[in-house]
Write a structure and sequence with these properties.
By secondary structure, the chain is of the alpha/beta class. It has one domain: 3-Layer(aba) Sandwich (Rossmann fold). Helix content is 37%, strand content 18%. The protein has 10 helices and 8 strands. Strands 1-2-4-3-5-6-7-8 form an 8-stranded mixed β-sheet, with helices on both faces. It starts with a helix and ends in a 6-residue tail after the last helix. The model has no long low-confidence stretch (mean pLDDT 96). This is Alpha/beta hydrolase. GO terms for molecular function: hydrolase activity. InterPro entries: AB_hydrolase_3, AB_hydrolase_fold, GDXG_lipolytic_enzyme.
Length: 299
């Protein structure tokens, strides 16, 4: 464990992050106090931006000064479907955009419990469809952490089903792949996970699912069609309650000879690639930058 992660872990403990995820129902209104819907240039590492509404989404386009090529990275932030984007989301995406010289979209999609998963996924679908009016799908990448990781996977499964052109790559970061979080291994990891707790995650998922089953593919990509997905670069963590389900997802992908690369944060928590000051997170961002450059044909 790096010294940076030691400090992050200490801050998480002082903030009572684990405790906040142990509530049922989860206090989503308190979580929303972290929301930043309009970023400033400091958050965006000097990149410029503009905003527009696409359906029920607020889409922020991040434009690096040194933009090069015609690639687009579309990012669905995490927040258990009920809050976000937060400071960590903006900073991470801006770093990736700036270092890869690639334009990026932050998709601030409608949230639960005011909206259910059918509305949320339809909104993300609309944003992707709008992007394809300007960008060739072969130059589009999708990235998402936690709930956002679920949304980019379910979006791509829908595109496969509808025989639409697919994005070039998927970058799910510690995604929710089974909203039922019923895997028996989760309870053991809950004891060491410094961020999430089973009770709060399940509560948020129930707020989002509406009348559907928590195992419906619309909210749980583990149960969707995993054939024909584009290359996946999946970031997971050993100290994250969502990992056992991600392991099942990886197994399913490999059984159909799917293209998946797994980057594991050993001894690290949920969404570790976007956490601040950590050496491990900086290395993960560099890896994502390299992946993102492929949108423009760069190595």
């Amino acid at each position: 464990m790096s010294f940076g992660y030691f400090l992050v872990k200490l801050v998480l403990k002082l903030k009572g992050e684990k405790q906040s995820w142990s509530e049922d129902p989860i206090n989503y209104k308190k979580k929303r106090k972290q929301n930043i819907r309009v970023p400033n240039r400091w958050l965006l590492q000097g990149c410029t931006f503009d905003q527009k509404d696409i359906g029920k989404n607020r889409v922020t386009q991040i434009i690096p000064k040194n933009e090069q090529g015609s690639g687009l990275l579309i990012y669905c932030h995490g927040g258990a479907f009920v809050y976000g984007p937060t400071r960590e989301n903006w900073v991470a995406l801006a770093k990736i955009a700036k270092q890869s010289r690639t334009r990026a979209w932050m998709i601030d999609y409608p949230k639960a419990p005011e909206n259910t998963i059918d509305t949320i996924t339809q909104s993300v679908y609309q944003a992707y469809q709008e992007a394809t009016k300007t960008y060739n799908p072969s130059n589009i990448g999708l990235m998402g952490d936690s709930a956002g990781g679920s949304l980019i996977l379910t979006l791509t499964q829908r595109l496969v089903k509808e025989a639409k052109e697919l994005p070039k790559q998927l970058i799910p970061i510690t995604p929710i792949v089974d909203a039922s979080v019923s895997n028996p291994k989760i309870k053991e990891i809950d004891k060491i996970d410094p961020i999430l707790s089973l009770k709060g995650v399940l509560s948020a998922n129930k707020m989002c699912v509406g009348d559907l089953s928590l195992e419906d593919p619309l909210i749980s990509p583990l149960y969707g069609d995993i054939d024909k997905l584009p290359p996946i670069y999946l970031f997971m963590a050993t100290d994250d309650i969502l990992t056992p389900d991600q392991e099942l997802f990886i197994e399913k992908i490999r059984k159909v000879n799917g293209n998946i690369e797994v980057i594991t944060g050993k001894g690290l928590p949920h969404v570790w690639p976007i956490l601040p000051i950590m050496k491990e997170a900086k290395e993960a961002i560099r890896r994502i930058v390299t992946i993102t450059k492929e949108l423009k044909g760069e190595g």
